[in-house]
Amino acid sequence: MKRVHLKPTDPCWCGSGIPYGECHQHADQKIAYYKKRGHIVPPPRLLRTREEIEGIRASAAINTGVLDHVAAHIHEGMSTEEINTLVQEYTVSHGAVCAPLNYEGYPKSVCTSVNHEVCHGIPSHRRKLRSGDIVNVDVSTIFNGFYSDASRMFMIGEVKPEVQRLVEQTKECLKRGIEAAQAWHFVGDIGAAVQQYAESCGYSVVRELGGHGVGLVFHDEPFVSHVGKKNTGMLLVPGMVLTVEPMINMGGPGVELDRYNGWTVYTQDGKPSAQWEHTILITEEGPEILTW
């Protein structure tokens, strides 16, 4: 049923069973208002129905469980390939699929990025976790066709205080970015909040990579930059599902791609980088964290 043809008494397009006039009509009118004034608005396909949101929630519950499982078992001396095994076995045992595996040729079930690896670190039997390391474990799950995505930082053994601070302040960047993701605000507000706080701490923000829409596919619109200006970018509308995942560098913002494996991204200056990621749902009451 096309929204433009819906009457207030028709069932709402979202599948709620509530009349359109009591459900999404007001939101659709607000979207039209912003569009007329030249703002970028999300296409209808980015607004999740109630049924779709429940499917994403179920995927997200498994995704969070995977990271909890890693948190319970990660330790000094283990290889990043062992983390891959933990993720793969937990995911499969819960009837789900690891989204990274074979995605555009990616060879593993999870990304494990250590120290100066910004993201997309490939698990390996040769890479052992040592005291002082920091590692980002980035998990993405498909369950019944619905996608979810989150990552956490882990500190191994005795980590230098300045590196601990990087990990902790990056998590605060994530928190502030999510708090900025309010309905009827803009994607640029997220980047502005992250950038302001990170730079106030003396860090830099990776620009080439960012968050993204997620839910029905692995990566969708909008691209969520973690630098930006308020009141710019796509309008944030209830029903949108996206990731916020700031990558914060202790040194400069420059990054480079591994020319051999074509995946792993490193800091150009070799200094540590940290990242935390949550998937969130935009609601009228504020952003809801689905997986963490």
What does the model show?
This protein is an alpha+beta fold and 292 residues long. The chain is 28% helix and 22% strand. The strands form five sheets. Strands 1, 2, 4 and 5 form a four-stranded antiparallel beta sheet that branches. The chain has a three-stranded antiparallel beta sheet with strand order 3-12-11, with no helix packed on it. β4 and β5 (146-155) form a beta hairpin. The chain is globular, with a radius of gyration of 20 Å. The mean pLDDT is 96.
Provide a compact summary of the structure.
With 292 residues, this protein is an alpha+beta fold.
List the helices and strands and how they pair.
Blueprint lengths: L24 H12 L13 H24 L6 H14 L3 E2 L12 E4 L2 E3 L14 E10 L2 E10 L5 H19 L7 H14 L3 E2 L5 E3 L6 E5 L16 E4 L2 E3 L5 E3 L7 E3 L5 E3 L2 E4 L6 E4 L1
Helix pairs in contact: 2-3, 4-5
* Largest beta-sheet characterization: 4 strands, antiparallel
Relative helix content? 25-40%
Count of alpha and pi helical runs: 5
Secondary-structure element sequence? Answer: HHHEEEEEHHEEEEEEEEEE
- The whole-number mean of residue pLDDT values reads 96
The Rg value, from CA coordinates, equals 20 Å
The end-to-end span amounts to: 35 Å
* Secondary structure category: alpha+beta
Q: Proportion of β residues?
A: 15-25%
Overall geometric form:
globular
Number-wise, the strands total: 15
Unreliable stretches: none
